[in-house]
Specification:
The structure holds two protein chains of two kinds. By secondary structure, chain A is of the alpha+beta class. Chain A has 26 helices and eleven strands. In chain A, β3 and β4 form a beta hairpin. The longest helix of chain A is centred in the middle third of the chain and has 33 residues. Chain B is an all-alpha fold. The chains are: A alpha+beta, B mainly alpha. Chains A and B meet through α2, α15, α16, α25 and α26 of A and α2, α3 and α4 of B.
Chain lengths: 830, 240
């Protein structure tokens, strides 16, 4: 079977090469036969990759351990689902899975668009095939998933990493890959449009849909990753700014920017070069993200280890992509001239420009901060750590600006907004924002970022509600129906716009979840059976610690009963540690979570002593965290509505619209009490009242625990390390406690740690001094640079030639008959 | 490519391959009795996928040897037409959308009219293209091309591609750009034959200046702003 697999990979490479060659030749010679054959070859690659996938999945299912990759990532006792998921559990298989998805995605994109964009298709096929060829080359010369053992093969497999044996392993990587792979399609269309010179707005239409689909999968993948981290890693959070997480976020930023700026081009014929650049950059960043995580240039919890040869191959390909694409952009610059100018800064275009500025800044910032440890190592030999505190410091205000723009954008008009227009549009959203802000202060939230976030959320929700209500009112006037029907019609008639607004509401909910992190609580407690501690408004009692086992693993479970502060039982929770037989030294954390809309009670059993029946548990009260997942649900719904084909008729559209409107209304209703609940819950006491020991930590200790890294290799600050019985964590926290008790200031404690460790790598962010100031200066520099860049663009717009003849043409183009027909059709369109 | 329309063709190749794949999958199931269910399922799925390889290989190789220049599996005109219809629906929807924005008092009157007019020009262009790709006319032109043209001249897929901003069926595939319908304003570049938008002043492919519009019905050269041909009175699609 291994030989068959290798043969199929080689075959796929040869066919891809043929597809690329025949398409280009066909397009150059205007030979329909060659073009059609090239399209067929692209389908053929997809079919061959499907068979190859069948072969490797079969090897996993039957446990063919002669294949090295199968032996490393699978074992006989693994449940069937994880055996299949092992396909993408390692480096070689993940590349193959990538090609498989790309071939399927590419084949369907070509099949769907082959009529509408006939002139582009040959070059789309050629681009897709070239990208496939690159990944196939990687497999054939370097990371062959079908490689076999040269000598006698082991009888048993090593098994998939226990951390990966999780339900999300089955769905998170495939969705993530779909998002990454999907960005190749817009890139292929973009290159085809550049080569053929058909750079009018029609190529954008194909690209916009595919970007939206890929963007959706990327968002889904990122959210699933967050849920996975939250439920499995056991440090109480969901986003650790790990390089691999960042790798997924980078193309997300640029794709989001593109989805917004593409509207400016469609409506106003501006930002053409910019849109092409964004598509290319997004594709480049998917490659770069893969390169970062697959080649070991950055250290990460999910990195696949160092691999210089792979790094070299990626570098060559990425450089080739950049040079080739931007050479074409330069060549086609005359065709990419803006047809319009920026009339005013108080316009939708300007808001989109600002939005792009913030998103681009985010992408550059995250990229630089992620790469900084590598850069500093190559410059000074010292690998520094840039951890979550640094990212949070910067990304919090950036996120808030983005949130503000979400509310401002819809209120502005294209071209220019008059003062009267603006007064009318902004009044109610601002009132809504102020009300939310006042409510936040009234409820006693004193964290500035969270408070501002709630106020801005109020503003955005006010904006969107106003858009829905006013829109429905206008429609009501024209159609003469009741308000609800008008609203349903509104959504089904303007799917893109109102779908987009729903995505924005989803984003607002997610931001509220992020803001909740600002005032969550966490405590550590030592418990013996029968003992209880109080955390916030919850009283936890340990009943027992029990050990059980199944065919694959041993499970140690803490049985905890939870009461509210009045003493009535809320429920039982079972945090656990699982020890897989194949890798007993890597136990997995099974977190117990009690979810409510207002907050999660999140219990981790950090350590235990079976003999003494004692357990060390970490208890987190995470505010509003479930709104992140709910927000994503709404985002998915909004994307779905925006993606509905234009042909879905009023009936279907109206039905979806009704559902969507209902859910928005329902969510708005749910939102208010949840907010209130969250606040009351957060003003708890926190001191232990039971017989268990609550580990006391002062505010300074907590802060320092976030600044000092854990030494166990988890790559997290000591305060958030989720390893079991972690000695590194215990040592660091103990040392912090002792130093603080001695009366040392925060700076002195940090200096002590740096001195003892012999370098700043022990800090979760470098100190703002010496050449490390570079890192701290970077965000300012980036912001200034992007601002200058955009100012130049805006200036060129404002002074650019007014080609009013193109758009100022009177509507009477064409003969009167056609004009009459157009008016009739418009009238019938309701 | 449904089986309903394939009755006059007999068994299609892809049906044959798929049938063979299913038979092979059945054989696999019979041969591998005693193995675990999951492995048999994966094996038979793989075998069926192998038949897809055969289908795709056929799809890739057949255009190279087929007598026709192109091997579309449905009348090309109808598919181009569908694409144009979708395009038109989109433009009409956009017009509606900006009218709506205006009703919500977000845009000033001048800006609104400007944007609406631009979209209307595009919509009219599409309507005209749709007229010229009429099914009946397409067939007639097809016949005329076959009768009149010499050996080796392709039929052309996007029969009667007009002008318009969205020249979706432009000339990459056909071996010769097809002739536009009567009454349609020709704005093909004289230097490189690229079709251009009706309002274009320079060719989008080579940058050459576009000459005054020529009537396709009678070849008379008209002024840039003429609405009707001065030679034959055919509408030219230019505003007054």
């Amino acid at each position: 079977m291994a030989t068959l697999g290798q043969f199929l990979l080689l075959l796929a490479f040869v066919i891809s090469a043929y597809a690329a060659a025949s398409s280009v030749a066909g397009a150059r010679r205007r030979n329909g036969r060659l073009i059609e054959s090239g399209i067929g070859a692209l389908y053929l690659v997809a079919a061959v990759m499907t068979v190859a996938t069948g072969v490797i999945v079969h090897a996993f299912v039957v446990g063919d351990f002669t294949i090295r990759y199968v032996q490393r990532y699978s074992e006989s006792a693994q449940p069937l689902g994880y055996k299949i998921a092992s396909y993408w559990g390692g480096l070689d298989g993940s590349i193959m899975f990538w090609v498989f998805l790309l071939s399927l995605f590419g084949a369907s994109a070509v099949r769907i668009n082959r009529e509408r964009h006939r002139e582009l298709i040959p070059y789309v096929v050629a681009t897709l095939s070239t990208v496939q060829m690159f990944f196939l080359t990687l497999m054939i010369v370097h990371n062959n998933p079908f490689a076999t053992y040269l000598t006698e093969s082991p009888a048993a497999g090593q098994g998939l990493n226990p951390l990966l044996q999780n339900f999300y392993m089955a769905i998170h990587p495939p969705t993530m890959y779909l998002g990454f792979v999907g960005m190749t399609i817009p890139f292929a269309f973009c290159i085809a449009a550049l080569i053929t010179g058909h750079l009018d707005d029609s190529w954008l239409r194909a690209v916009r849909r595919w970007t939206m689909i890929s963007w959706f999968f990327l968002s889904l993948g990122l959210t699933l990753g967050m849920i996975w981290a939250y439920e499995e890693l056991g440090w109480g959070g969901f986003w650790g700014w790990d390089p691999v997480e960042n790798a997924g976020l980078l193309p997300w930023f640029t794709a989001t920017a593109f989805l917004h700026s593409v509207m400016v081009q469609e409506r106003r014929g501006m930002l053409r070069v910019w849109n092409v650049t964004l598509v290319i950059t997004t594709f480049f960043l998917t490659l770069f993200g893969t390169f970062m995580t697959r080649s070991g240039v950055v250290q990460s919890v999910h990195a696949f280890g160092e691999d210089r040869q792979l790094a070299l191959m990626f570098t060559v390909f990425m450089s080739a992509v950049l040079i080739f694409s931007f050479a074409w952009v330069l060549y086609r610059l005359p065709l990419l001239k803006a047809r319009n100018e920026l009339d005013s800064w108080a316009s939708k275009e300007a808001a989109f420009l600002a939005n792009n500025w913030v998103l681009l800044f985010s992408a550059l910032f995250v990229l630089f901060a992620t790469m900084f440890p590598t850069l500093s190592e190559s410059l000074t030999g010292e690998r520094l750590t840039v951890g979550p505190p640094f990212f949070n410091t910067w990304m919090t205000p950036v996120g808030l600006i983005l949130l503000l723009l979400t509310g401002v954008g819809p209120l502005l008009a294209w071209r220019t907004s008059t003062l009267a227009n603006m007064r009318q549009q902004f009044l109610w959203p601002i009132v809504s924002g102020l009300t939310a802000g006042a409510l936040t202060i009234g409820l006693g939230i004193r964290v500035w970022s969270s408070g501002l976030c709630f106020a801005l959320s109020g503003f955005v929700v006010g904006t969107i509600a106003q858009e829905f209500i006013r829109g429905a009112a206008v429609r009501q006037q024209t159609t003469g129906t009741d308000l609800f029907t008008a609203m349903v019609g509104l959504v089904s008639r303007n799917k893109r716009r109102y779908g987009g607004y729903m995505v924005h509401v989803g984003i607002v909910l997610m931001f509220m979840g992020f803001a909740g992190e600002g005032f969550g609580r966490d405590e550590q407690a030592l418990l013996k059976p029968g003992q209880q501690v109080q955390v916030d408004r919850y009283v936890l009692r340990l009943d027992a610690i029990r050990a059980t086992e199944d065919s694959q693993k041993q499970m140690v479970t803490g049985h905890i009963t939870v009461f509210d502060d009045k003493g009535s039982e809320i429920g039982k929770m079972y945090p656990a540690k699982w020890f897989y037989r194949s890798r007993p030294q890597e136990p997995t954390t099974e977190v117990a979570i009690r979810r409510t809309l207002a907050e999660d009670l999140y219990i981790v059993m950090a350590g235990f002593e079976l003999g003494e029946q004692s357990a060390s548990v970490e208890v987190h009260v995470n505010e509003l965290v479930n709104w992140i997942w709910i927000g994503f649900g709404l985002m998915a719904l909004g994307t779905g509505i925006a993606l509905l084909p234009e042909r879905v008729l009023a009936l279907a559209g109206a039905r979806v619209g009704a559902e969507a409107t209902a859910s928005v209304l329902l969510l708005c209703l749910l939102l208010a009490p949840a907010g209130v609940l969250a606040q009351t819950a957060s003003v708890g006491q926190g001191a232990g009242t039971g017989t268990g020991t609550l580990v006391f930590r002062s505010a300074e200790e907590r802060e320092l625990a976030n600044e000092i890294m854990c030494t166990c290799g988890c790559r997290l600050p000591a305060g958030t390390c989720g390893m079991m019985n972690c000695e590194g964590k215990a040592a660091q926290l103990g040392k912090i406690k002792a130093l603080v008790a001695k009366g040392l200031t925060r700076e002195q404690v940090i200096d002590t740690f740096v001195q003892e460790a012999g370098g700043q790598f022990i800090l979760s962010r470098p100190k703002d001094e010496g050449y490390h100031r570079l890192l701290w200066l970077m965000p300012y520099t980036l912001a200034a640079l992007t601002a200058v860049g955009l100012a130049v663009i805006a200036r060129r717009w404002a002074t650019g030639r007014t080609e009013a003849s193109g758009l100022g043409m009177p509507a009477a183009a064409g003969d009167a008959g056609l004009q009459q027909r157009l008016d009739d059709e418009l009238r019938d369109l309701d | 490519m449904s089986s309903a329309i394939s009755t006059d063709h007999g068994l299609r190749p892809w049906q044959l391959f798929l049938l063979a794949g299913m038979l092979a999958a059945t054989a696999v199931v019979l041969v591998s009795s005693g193995r675990s269910t999951s492995s048999v399922v994966v094996l038979s799925v793989t075998v069926v996928a192998a038949s897809l390889v055969a289908v795709a290989a056929y799809r890739s190789l057949s255009p190279l040897v087929s007598p026709e220049d192109l091997v579309p599996d449905a009348p090309a005109g109808s598919r181009t037409r569908a694409a144009l219809e979708r395009e038109k629906a989109l433009v009409l929807r956009s017009i509606k959308e900006i009218e709506f924005d205006h009703a919500m008092r977000k845009t000033a009157v001048g800006d609104f009219e400007d944007m609406r007019d631009r979209l209307k020009v595009r919509a009219v262009g599409l309507l005209r293209q749709l007229d010229s790709t009429g099914y009946r006319e397409a067939v007639e032109r097809d016949l005329a091309a076959r009768a009149g043209a010499g050996v080796g001249v392709g039929v052309g897929v996007g029969v009667g591609v007009g002008v318009g901003v969205v020249a979706s069926a432009a000339a990459a595939v056909p071996s010769r750009p097809p002739a536009p319908g009567p009454g349609v304003l020709s704005r093909a570049c004289q230097e490189c034959d690229t079709p251009n938008a009706p309002d274009a002043r320079f060719c989008k492919a080579c940058g050459a200046g576009l000459a005054a519009p020529m009537c396709v019905a009678c070849d008379t050269v008209n002024e840039l702003d003429a609405r009707f041909c001065k030679g034959c009175g055919a509408p030219l699609g230019r505003p007054a």
